[in-house]
Amino acid sequence: MGSPFTVARMSCVAGAAFRIKGRRRCAIFHARFNLAGRWNRVISNKRWTNRHVGRHRRAMMLLALIGLIATPPTGGAAADRPRAEHPVTLAFRARRPARRYSVTVPIGKPRPAVPLPRIEGPDDNRLPLVVIDAGHGGHDPGAISPHNGRREKDVTLAIARAIRDELLASRRVRVALTRDDDRFLVLEERYGIARRLKADLFISVHADAAENSEAHGASVYTLSEVASDREAARLAARENKANIINGVDLGAHGDAVSSILIDLTQRETMNASAEFARLLQREASDEMTFRTTAHRFASFVVLKAPDTPSVLFETGFLSNKGDAAFLASASGRKKVARGVREAVQIHFARRLAAE
Ligand SMILES: [Zn+2]
Fold first, then answer.
1. Measuring CA to CA, how many Å separate 309 from each of 200, 270, 346?
2. Which of 75, 82, 61, 67 is nearest to 1 (CA)?
3. How far apart are the CA of 80 and the centre of ligand 1, in A?
């Protein structure tokens, strides 16, 4: 059963008073409150006048009204339900949709920085640091030679090691390789390593391929937003594709950011890079064949370090039989490495003299 209010309501609904044996009596009982707030039941036996009935009815109506507000209409178990289930509230609540939809917005996770490679050479921080980057690696083989089946990623790693050994033998510079095994690195990670090591020069080693098997010879590329020719632009597009796996660009920056970096801080770096590119062609020409227009410009991602002079060294064409054999041989690699060594030594000697 409900509260006394429920009873009062029932009595009121029944008419509050009716006749028993010809007398008006209270229907069941009526509640009255004393000053202390306690209520007590009074069974009234006295004869009711119309005035009594009216007063009683009003009192019952008031109690019933309070009862309506305070008591759940179903009473009993319903009284234990939480207030939120009250039907009045429910009537104004929006219906829960039958199906729920969710939208997932991918937010780029920052890639954990790749571990820095070991710096080799004399333990002297004053000596310039050269970072050699063997192009491609891991799932990205680069170009594949139709003549000896050699993959660019293996050829570049062997040449990078040869250059390292040659530079270390000079004892005039310190050297680090971005990779010394068959692993994949995003292009930004490659120059990122050079920047984190505070490198003084960055050389990315590659070997080209062309449909025309007659195309041969090396070339040196430096960064420019405007490619020097269509072939340079195509090559940059191909090399920059290393970042794209299953249509997802693993590089962190959009074009806008890259452009700003270039516009604001790279002028001096680009000049130093171009100077080294010309030097490399001049010094290595005794050892290996260069193309007629050996120094070219294009927007290579791997050259976008704003503060590290950087070149991309296309050492030859794997699609050319002569070049492929030259680059695959230890003697060929040694010649390439000697050319780089000469250029590096002159480059830093000039820098030292200019200070
Ligand atoms: Zn390449």
1. 7, 7, 15
2. 75
3. 75
- Give phi and psi for 305, each to the nearest 5: -65, 125
Tokens coding 18: 């009716």
How many angstroms is it from 136 CA to the middle of ligand 1? 6
- Residues in Cβ contact with 125 at an 8 Å cutoff, skipping those fewer than 6 apart: none
Q: Residue 182 C-alpha to ligand 1 middle, in angstroms? A: 14
What does pTM read for this prediction? 0.66
- What does the pLDDT look like over 21-69, one tens digit per residue? 444 444 444 444 444 445 444 444 455 567 767 776 787 788 878 877 7
Residue-wise pLDDT for 105-151, tens only, equals: 665 566 667 899 999 999 999 999 999 999 999 999 999 999 999 99
For the chain, the structural domain boundaries read 4-76, 129-354
Nearest to 130 by CA among 193, 209, 72: 193
Q: How far, in Å, is the centroid of ligand 1 from the Cα of 187?
A: 11
The tokens for 203 are: 């050389």
Half-sphere exposure of residue 273: CA atoms within 13 angstroms, side-chain side: 28
CA of residue 40 to ligand 1 center, whole Å: 99
Name the CATH code of domain 129-354 (choices 3.30.110.10, 3.40.50.360, 3.30.70.1350, 3.40.630.40). Answer: 3.40.630.40
Query: What is the mean predicted confidence (pLDDT) over 327-349?
Result: 97
